[in-house]
Design a protein that fits this description.
Helix content: 40-55%
CATH class: Alpha Beta
Number of strands: 13
CATH superfamily: Luciferase-like domain
Strand order of the largest sheet: 1-2-3-5-8-9-10-13
Number of domains: 1
Largest sheet: 8 strands, parallel, barrel
C-alpha cells in the first residue's frame, strides 16, 4: 500500500513547494492538490454577504501542478479532485496533456462532478442539480478518455459536442490515469466502474470496505474486473497520546477522521485499510502547520508506515 501527501493550496507557493519537496525526498508516493478557488463555507447563504473565511487565499490547482511538475521529481501528481463544472473537458484534456509532458508522465487526472456552492455563485458558474451534474460528469469522462486516445473525436452529448476534435500531443502516458473522486453509490460509483483507472473517497476502513463492495457490484453489471481500478482513501491524520482524546476527535471529524489515534491505533488503522483493499492512503496537510508539517510527516512514516 502506498502513502501520498495532499498539499494545502491555501499556503503561499514557497510553502507548497517546500512541503512537496520534503514529501518527495522522504519517500512519499504522490502529491495531490484540491481544485478550488476559495474556502468552503458550511451553511453557505447565497443571499448573505461575504464572510472573512470565504475570502481566504487559494492558489489555482492546475497552474500549481505545472509548476510542481517542473520542480518536484519522481512522484505522481494529481488533483483531488478537478471540479468538472469549472472547465470544458476538451480544454482540461489539453491542460492535462501539457502537465503530463512537463512531468515526464507522472500525472493523474483526478475528476469529480463539482459541488462547492459558494464558488459557483460568486463566479457565476452554473452548478445545476445533482442529477444534472452527474449526467454532465459522465459525458465529460467519456470526452476526456476519448481525446486522450483517439486521433479525432466526434461526440454529440446533451452538454458537450465535439466535431472531429483533435488533441495533440497526446499525453506521455497511454492511457493517462483517470481518477474519479466520490462515494455516491448509485451514480458516482457507476461512473467509476465505467471510466476510472483509479477511485478515491473519504472514509475510515469500514467505509472503504462497504464502498468497494458497491463498486464491485457496478463492475459486475458491466463485466469489468474491479481489480483494474486502483482504490485510495483520503483521511485527516492526527496523532495523539490519549485514546480518549482520539475518540473525541474522531467523533468530531466524522468520515474525514480516518487516521486519528495513538501510534498503536494508527498502525492498526493502516493495517485495516490494507485489509479492506485500499491501494493508497492520502494524507492531507490540513491538520498541520508549516512549523509542524515536516516533523509530523516524518513521524508518521517512521513510527506508523515503516513500523
Amino acid at each position: 500500500m502506498d502513502f501520498s501527501f495532499w498539499a494545502d493550496t491555501t499556503k503561499p507557493w514557497a510553502q507548497v513547494v517546500e512541503g512537496c519537496q520534503h514529501a518527495e525526498a522522504t519517500g512519499w508516493y504522490g502529491l495531490w492538490l484540491a481544485d478550488h478557488f476559495m474556502p468552503n463555507i458550511e451553511g453557505y447563504d447565497p443571499d448573505g454577504g461575504p464572510v472573512d473565511e470565504e475570502m481566504g487565499p487559494m492558489l489555482e490547482a492546475w497552474t500549481l501542478l505545472g509548476g510542481l511538475a517542473a520542480v518536484v521529481p519522481r512522484v505522481r501528481l494529481g488533483t483531488m479532485v478537478t471540479g468538472n463544472t469549472y472547465r470544458h473537458p476538451a480544454v482540461l484534456a489539453n491542460m492535462a496533456a501539457a502537465v503530463d509532458h512537463i512531468s515526464g508522465g507522472r500525472l493523474v487526472v483526478g475528476m469529480g462532478a463539482g459541488w462547492q456552492e459558494n464558488e459557483h455563485h460568486r463566479y457565476g458558474i452554473e452548478l445545476g442539480t445533482i442529477r444534472g451534474r452527474c449526467d454532465r460528469f459522465e459525458e465529460a469522462c467519456e470526452v476526456l478518455t476519448r481525446l486522450f486516445t483517439e486521433e479525432r473525436v466526434d461526440f454529440d452529448g446533451e452538454y458537450y459536442q465535439l466535431r472531429q476534435a483533435p488533441m495533440e500531443p497526446k499525453p506521455v502516458q497511454s492511457p493517462i490515469p483517470l481518477m474519479i473522486g466520490g462515494g455516491g453509490e448509485k451514480r458516482t460509483l457507476r461512473t467509476v466502474a465505467r471510466f476510472a483507472n483509479e477511485w478515491n473517497v473519504w472514509g475510515a476502513p469500514d467505509d472503504l470496505r462497504h464502498k468497494i463492495s458497491v463498486l464491485e457490484s457496478h463492475c459486475a453489471d458491466i463485466g469489468r474486473d474491479p481489480a483494474e481500478i486502483r482504490k485510495s482513501a483520503a483521511a485527516l491524520m492526527i496523532m495523539t497520546d490519549s485514546e480518549e482524546a482520539a475518540a473525541k476527535l474522531r467523533s468530531g471529524l466524522a468520515h474525514r477522521g480516518g487516521l486519528v489515534g495513538t501510534i498503536d491505533q494508527l498502525r492498526d488503522i493502516v493495517a485495516d485499510y490494507e485489509a479492506a483493499g485500499v491501494d493508497e492512503v492520502i494524507v492531507p496537510e490540513f491538520t498541520m502547520t508549516p512549523e509542524t508539517r515536516n516533523e509530523t510527516l516524518d513521524r508518521f512514516r517512521s513510527e506508523v508506515i515503516e513500523a
